[in-house]
Amino acid sequence: MWGSAIWPVTLECGDLGLRPIRYRDRREWTDLRIRNAQWMAPWEASNPLPGGDLPSYAAMVRSLNQQARQETALPFLITEREGLRSAPAIAGQLTVSTIVWGSARMATLGYWVDEARAGRGIAPTAVALATDHCFGALGLHRMEINIKPENAASLRVVEKLGFRDEGLRKRYLHIAGQWADHRSFALTTEDVPEGLLTRWLART
């Protein structure tokens, strides 16, 4: 089983944090998703089964927590502190999923960020924090991010962080009601011997 240094864990860089998602975050998370519904609609994962719906918030958290116990996922919320006396607010979500052990030692990372906070470096910093944690604490070797070619904002994130473009995956994920092509980006530990966060902060 994972130790406490791996999960549950809180990761921080300045006012930005990554922490485990909780049941009691439902109201704040739901309000944020409602405000961002139009912003996220073109990139929203959907259920390919006929008449299938996405899970409720509670079902999502339950499933993510089960995956964490099985050591196949790290379900984080992205938080931002907006003042010295304020509690961190939810700024988005980041999930490390499909963790594979054995000879592969790899994972897939996905994220979304509040539209009102986009363009301020939150997403690349969060991705760098999570990737370093996976490479360091978990001992993973490869991190992969898959993005729709039309998602310019997410493409800028992986480009800023130096993820390698490994080509197109046809009809890779069910997004917004249809199977969608994705571009696959990856980093391995050899690509960032100094750590991804260190490299990213040196550029900002």
From TrEMBL:
Q: Name one GO cellular component term.
A: cytoplasm
Q: Which residues form a coiled coil?
A: none
At the top level, the lineage of the source is: Bacteria
- What GO annotations for molecular function exist for this entry? protein-N-terminal-alanine acetyltransferase activity
* Keywords, comma-separated and alphabetical: Acyltransferase, Transferase
- Identify the residues that the record assigns to the N-acetyltransferase domain, covering every copy: 16-190
Question: InterPro entries attached here?
Answer: Acyl_CoA_acyltransferase, GNAT_dom, N-acetyltransferase
Family under the similarity heading:
Belongs to the acetyltransferase family. RimJ subfamily.
The identity of this protein, by name, is GNAT family N-acetyltransferase
Q: Which organism is it from?
A: Arthrobacter sunyaminii
